[in-house]
Amino acid sequence: MEEDEESVDDEFEDFEDEEDEEEDIREVVVPGEVLTEDVKNFLPGRGTILNKEKNKIISLNIGLKQIKKNYINVIPLRGFYTPRPGDKVIALVVDKNPVKYKCDINAKDFGQLKPKNTIKTGRTRGFRGGGPPRDNISTEKFDIGDILVVKILSADRLNKPELTTVGKYLGKKTGGIIITIDPPKIPRVIGRNGSMIKMLKNLTKCNIFVTQNGRIWLKGENIAHERLLIESINKIALEAHTVGLTDRMQEYIINEKKKRGIE
Amino acid sequence: MMDIKRIVSKIERDYIISNLKKEERIDNRGLWEYREFQIKSDTIASAEGSADVSLGDTRIITGLKYDVGAPFPDLPDEGVCTVMAELLPLASPLFERGPPDEQSIELARVVDRGIRHADCVQTKKLCIKEKEAVYILFVDMYVINYAGNLIDAGGVSALSTLISAHIPEGIWNEEKHETEWTGKYLTGKTLVNELPFVITYGKIEDIVFLDPNLPEEMVCDGKISISVTEDKITSIQKSGAATFTIDEIKTLGSKSLEIGKKLRKELNLLQYLSKIE
Amino acid sequence: MPLIIKDEYPETLFRKDGKRLDGRDVNELRPIKMEVGVIKNADGSAYLEWGNNKIFATVYGPREVHPHHLAKPDRGILRVFYRMATYSVFDRKRPAPGRREKEISMIVADCIEPLLFLELYPGTSFEVFIEVMDADGGTRCAGTTVAALALADAGIPMKSLVSSIAVGKIDGKKVVDLSGIEDKAGNADLPIAITWYNEEISLLQFDGDMNLDEMNEFLDLAKNALKDIHKIQLDTLKSKYVKLQEETNKSMGKNEKKGDE
Lengths: 263, 277, 261
Hints:
By secondary structure, chain A is of the alpha+beta class. Chain A folds into 3 domains: 25-76, CATH 2.40.50.100; 88-173, CATH 2.40.50.140; 176-260, Ribosomal Protein S8, Chain: A, domain 1 (2-Layer Sandwich), CATH 3.30.1370.10. Chain A has 5 helices and 16 strands. In chain A, helix 3 packs parallel to helix 5 (245-260) and helix 4 runs antiparallel to helix 5. By secondary structure, chain B is α+β, with helices and mostly antiparallel strands. Chain B has a single domain (19-272), classed as 2-Layer Sandwich (Ribosomal Protein S5, domain 2). Helix content of chain B is 26%, strand content 33%. In chain B, strands 1, 2, 3, 4, 5 and 6 form a 6-stranded mixed beta sheet that branches. Chain B has a 4-stranded antiparallel beta sheet with strand order 10-9-11-12. Chain C has one domain (32-230): 2-Layer Sandwich (Ribosomal Protein S5, domain 2), CATH 3.30.230. In chain C, helix 1 (99-112) crosses helix 2 (139-153). Chain C is 31% helix and 27% strand. By secondary structure, chain C is α+β, with helices and mostly antiparallel strands. Chain B binds chain C through residues 1-2, 4, 43-47, 50, 57, 61, 63-68, 84, 86, 88-93, 96-97, 99, 138, 140, 142, 144-147, 168, 170, 179, 181, and chain C through 1-2, 4, 39-43, 45, 52, 54, 56-58, 60, 63, 66, 81, 83, 85-90, 92, 95-96, 127, 129, 131, 133-136.
């Protein structure tokens, strides 16, 4: 499980768009702010709403205003994680009973991990072949307190998210440490085409695993490197809305390494 | 969603323990080092003394109010100083609303005992008229942000509050049989006699360390708080399931006096005395 | 508890020079300072100083509902808890929440709820904690104002902010933003809040006496003052980010001049 940790970011295609206009300064807007009154030519996109009575498109969040084609979007600067099918997240097992694990995924609901979703089942070859008998499956594999990388199988407004540990890069994690940042800042830690995370990994010589629910697993040669990485990630989260961040962070880390006397 | 959970992950526990064994902590402190104290005094206009104290990210805002009433029958010439604490639900997703729970009661009582047994407050100076009228002081601590070690932050906050006090000065009018106000004030200079500090250590497996931060506190097997004046130990409280050897306690006793001296000097709390006349 | 300034209110609430006791004109606001993100453990938080008022607001949510029977299957619930510290008032207040605090909690919740999209978060709860550390008149208004900031800071989608203030009548004259003493000794007190989504009134109370003309004037006075409050809220939310943008742009500009392009 400890292979090429940052590869998870090839799944992050959705976020690439947002890095396109990295060079422009984007305007900071707040809830209720009027983004445009030109409702003929613009449509309300993410993080916005049409105030029909007043013929305005307004922002619902604190965020950065973005215009893509004729959609006005607000990319939130603060927010909480909403599980979507396909997301890879870091989960903490907080409870278990014989039929399922209850997992904290840093969302409004706890996720459910059923035993059948923790083992790879082979193709059934009929009555005598195939994987382990279904009714022998129980919740012995993981314990309360385990950290698991899971994928969201299903999540909607009314039902608790279903999770799985079957898949590439999924399963229990050992060693290292987990930190949590504001979920909207995660794309910035990855950077355009993974540029930020690759730089972090190289300069701090740490393994880093970034997931959608704001949780990041990291492991370095020693605590000094890990400390620098954690401080760097927090700095990225703070300055996520500024331009030229990757270059600045690179400079920052190089300087700090000198100051702290680490290689 | 702030990611503070009641269940601590094994990864976190292992990380903290393996680093403590190497005398390393994530916030770059040594095993016997405090986080930074930040103190602002007399910030609450409605109170007769107050202190806003942060220890790292743990923040407690304490205020002082007074009342005048009859003394306890067995202490007819002494006033009363009571300490209360509330862990506000706004301070942490772990705190629930409602009447004070074990944690807030422990905070109040440990801080109170540290002050009381050091004879910190001159309760005889709180007497207006023996058997008739004494001051009753209320030192109320409100936890605004919880990041580990409420007790030491609370102790400094309560002490700074008492030092910053400016309570209207009353004298007894024998004819009218009531208290009258001179227009002057009793301040910390009169009221505060000693500067006790309460010093808390965490224990994980067999490692003991000063001033647990939040993850350390959630992972630790137990804690011990020792209150000290310049040269005496005035109160001790052990909490949690961990056990301590006799040698450990002896070491902590002497370390506490040493740490207390250092803290007393560095914080220089007497600078917060009220300047009112 | 015996009062040093005996429990008699001052003869007049205006000074000889025509100003109010704290030096303000009739339409002048007290100094206001706001800040967001002050309590790191909270999902969203804000702090406000308004005259001598000092108030924290934090938001937790969306999260599980405790106790569970209060959860609604088709929408989230909003609960507001307005509390005052024992030392926030002249006469020490008992620690447990009283009826006044419960009433104010309800009014503030009614005011905030229409701004949220609770139907998007079934079975969950949003909790807003308003803690008054120091009180000096208009705490329910200041509390509503700072709660709106905390909700925005939590990243919870909102149709707009809400701003609140108390206007009233002291010694027969109409004034804006009553201080503690003006509230106690004055003739009329009208706390009011406006949500900016539809620019309508979402919180309204009144104590005192007024005729119809006076009420109309009060409402107009309030609306203007509220626009000023709203501006301070907007600046507070933005300035944290805008300042960083400006700083980093400056430092980048310097670097470009240094290097070659």
